[in-house]
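Could you join me in thinking about how sequence relates to backbone shape in a protein? We need material for that, and I hope you will provide a protein of your own picking. Label the sequence line and the structure token line clearly, so we can match residues to local backbone shapes. Would you write everything just below, so we can both look at the same thing?
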Amino acid sequence: MLETYSRDKADSDLQNQTTQPLPVRMTQHADRNSRDVAAHRARQAAAGRMPVTTYMPVDLVQMIDRIKEERGVSSRAPLIEEAVRFYIENTRA
């Protein structure tokens, strides 16, 4: 049976309000998402890649995002990889 969620009075100040019930299938989506993420991580590991997480200043991220849009790439990852590789190659010479 499909569960539904409808907004109540406490949600009245939120954007994108609806009076229609919204379908709730989080468990199905969570299972599929978990499998997709695990498969993506496995492919990356098989390709000899590993995840790196870091915090950066907002202005630097905004510059990366502008370059991302200009080049039409789908994520920041290739730009950050290119920048790190360029930095290492040019500071070791």
